[in-house]
Amino acid sequence: MRHPIILTLCAAGVFGLAGCQNAGGNDVERAMQAVNVVDESNLSDIMLTVADPNEAVAYFTRTVGEQPDRIDLRRGLALSLVRAQRASEATVAWRNVITHPEATEEDRVELADALIRSGEWDEARKTLNGVPPTYETFKRYRLEAMVADANKDWKRADSFYEIALGLTTRPAGVMNNWGFSKLTRGSYADAERLFTDAIRQDNKLFTAKNNLVLARAAQRNYALPVMPMTQLERAQLLHTLGLSAVKQGDVEIAKNLLRDAVETHPQHFDEAVRSLAALENNVRG
């Protein structure tokens, strides 16, 4: 008696499964699409971080061609072009992003960044002016400061740099930029203070170290400041000081600084050697 019952149950199970195949197939297809999106997202993240920038550009160019309506892929292409230092192309790509109905204020700020990288300062200013004042981010105000600097609007630049500093936990880069702004204005003491603060925040930031010695040399202070530096950095900074001394007309000091630069670097500092030779030959002439 049990066998007919089992067969009946099995038959019911088979017919039930057969009746669900269409709906189940759709569910499986949707699930596979979701998995593909996750995998694609992971690949996009890799392309935007550790992949070779030009390989990333090739990847996103292909995927945007296949799925042009996806804003995340358009962003990936634009970001990859920035990473590859292809600023003009990045500008075009970011313009393509902001035409998308899902574009954000952040995308407009990224467009302004690309415009600055390609030297289109007026367009960058107009783009930033189109971002509502309620959208307050570190990058927005850093770019605003850079644009104000380019226009020599020092009051606005100082205001934007100060706001940007309050919006980041890694202020060294902003301090360095602000210091360079002060340096170009001839405010050497203020520049020196900002470069010193930048190095205190990040003692591996060589640009700030080089700018610091420029600010000191502009005040005819040719002593290297006390700060962490490698032998190669020391040689490069002495070279910078030497060239600055030449510009100030302190030729003998310049020669001594360049000699120190040559002696400091273990493998000899070729640039300092050439600078010293040129200076000595010019003096003899």
From TrEMBL:
Keywords: Signal, TPR repeat. Gene3D superfamilies: Tetratricopeptide repeat domain (1.25.40.10). TPR repeats lie at residues 235-268. Transmembrane segments: none annotated. It comes from the Bacteria. PROSITE patterns: PROKAR_LIPOPROTEIN, TPR. Residues 1-23 form the signal peptide. It holds the Pfam family TPR_6. This is Tetratricopeptide repeat protein. It comes from Seohaeicola saemankumensis.
